[in-house]
User: Fold this.
Amino acid sequence: MTLTLADAGAESPPEADDGTWLACIECGATFPPFEAVRYTCDDCGSLLEVRYADPPTLEEFAASDDRGVWRYADALPVESGVSIAEGDTPLYEVPTIEAETGVADLRVKHEGANPTGSFKDRGMTVGVKVAEKLGVGRLACASTGNTSAALACYGARADTQVLVLLPAGKVAAGKVAQASLHGARILEVDGNFDACLDVVSELADRGEAYLLNSLNPFRLEGQKTIGLEILEQFRDGTGDLPDRIVLPVGNAGNTAALYKAFRELVAAGSLAPEDVPALTGVQAEGAAPMVEAVETGADEVRRWEEVETRATAIRIGNPVNAPKALPGIRETGGTAVAVSDAEITDAQRALARDGVGVEPASAASVAGLRKLRESGEIAADEQVVCLTTGHLLKDPDAAAAAGAEPEPVPADTEGVLDHLGE
Ligand code: F0G
Assistant:
């Protein structure tokens, strides 16, 4: 079974709780949402997604005065979250990059403006609330850094124990510092992110902890609000909807979440299938299994055992949400492209030049846009949104390496003027 643009509406099955249930994306089996801890289908082991009897329209959201993730409460599985004002991030104009790439309109949705500096907060405000509802004792995730920072923060807020598994030596300093200060127990694993996820998934299956990676269908519901916010903000700014959204891809959770947001708007009758923005994924060359699948037309993504990139947030070889995200790219007329670390650093500098400070993985979106403009796959008349997923300060070492060197000077004015050559 493939997730299509027209299949998000359905009659409530008997398992539904207040119009909400879990459905398997492969075999269609349905389950009650909050009766037991469940990440995958009991029958076939595939991914689950949250379903709603009555998904709301964009017009219904427009009637709300609330801002941020909970503006979209009617599209979420719980009425309120463990919340510290996540979402409502800026949609920036980036005049220099817009002129250079020569697209009709370019905006940057900066998710680095979330409370812990990445889009993960949108998922955690929902996921940690569901964890409370399920009454679990310990929360856990594998992470390239941002998920661990967000889970540590929201877990602290919910007064729940947090365990995070990080690939040793491959997580940017800002992220480890956040997980540490918010009080998570940090396990540094001798292996990459995919190995960390294997271990933590098994811990979760054994009932040792509640898993808050993007395999968790509730977390992706919160991340869905990125797509809803982009449509509302872009329309407010330009009177139109964007033709394309370009985003970095690791586990492909965001790609899956944006696709789900748009499928539900189609089901609600407020978006025509042909108006859904083309989802365009970008990976680093050294960790590009999704790009490989899109290029070869494969139905399944091959796990890359060896991965490497300076953009450590997306140093991932086994994108677990591929079964949800590949149809999203294909059904919306999108594509996927790989970029080099040098292209990522260059895009990070270009964003900084336009006043937007991002971590390397985020800049992959702009690097991908540049590449697809050069190849002609993105046309000059397109209105494009690039998603930047994390704040510059997440990876201070990468920022310092990409920027200018500090210059030592003596502690007197004449010496400083001499140095400046004035
Ligand atoms: N950008 C940033 C800054 C990220 O931290 C991640 C994922 C992605 C992009 C990719 O998003 O997985 O939804 O395709 N970070 C996860 C983590 C893996 O552990 O923080 P995706």
Remarks:
- The chain has a mean pLDDT of 97.
- Residues 118, 143-147, 214, 248-254, 313-314, 359, 361-362, 389-390 surround F0G (CB under 6 Å).
- The chain is about 40% helix and 15% strand.
